[in-house]
Amino acid sequence: MTDHAALLSVATEAVAKATGIIRSMTTFSVAAKGDRDMVTDVDLAVEDAVREFLARETPEIGILGEERGHEGDKDLWWALDPVDGTANFARGIPLCGVSLGLVDGSKSTVAAISLPFLDVTYTAAEGQGAYVGEERLEASKATKLSDAIVSIGDFAVGAGAEVKNRVRMALLAELGGRVQRVRFLGSAAIDLAWVAHGKLDASVILANQPWDTMAGVLLVREAGGVVVDTDGGEHTVRSAATIAVGAGLRDDLVAAIARVSG
């Protein structure tokens, strides 16, 4: 049986180490890694340091990092985004985070997200609740979209982006006319952590990169929210999208997405 408490301690220490590196590297270089996509040497330094730490502390567990790829066990593995929100970070916008989730099969069971420039750390373990520091998190109890603040994930880049972004534009129009406010924060880790924290009522990310989402998905679920795919089915590591929402808005939000996705 997996010792979630012990692994949560490892994850929390790992993101604390990452946060220290991010705060200490006051100068850095930025390089292109694709169409409108970038990486900094901070991303690489953080991923390398966290990989080394996790390999030492949990050698039996694999790891998937955004920058260095997948190594080790395919059923139990860490999903790491060393700097989620690199575009924000590179511009000095403090909305970025370190996201580390433990994926067991198709779902995450341990999560730690640190927001280095907001000085907060979010944690969760399966069946044990989600926390920011010592405060237990509770997702939104809103029941009307007109009362909801909803974040939308970044628009697509790279191959096929034009077609994918037609849906995003339609979604923006749909939600913009119905919800209280729409927000673009530029970090999936923050989107999901803030749904868990009740700062956002929902987050619609029309993608599902495990390093971006798996830690935050567990936070939302442990805070009493729900996370689904575009068809309303339960979210897994293989889902096409990541839709996190307070339970009272689930049906209305899924219906709104269905209207623009069909």
From TrEMBL:
Keyword match Iron: no
List of residues binding Mg(2+): 66, 81, 84, 212
Biological process annotations from GO: inositol metabolic process; signal transduction
Entry keywords, A to Z: Hydrolase, Magnesium, Metal-binding
PROSITE patterns noted in UniProt: IMP_1 (PS00629)
InterPro entries referenced in this protein's UniProt entry, alphabetically: Inositol_monoP_metal-BS, Inositol_monophosphatase-like
Protein name, entry field: Inositol monophosphatase
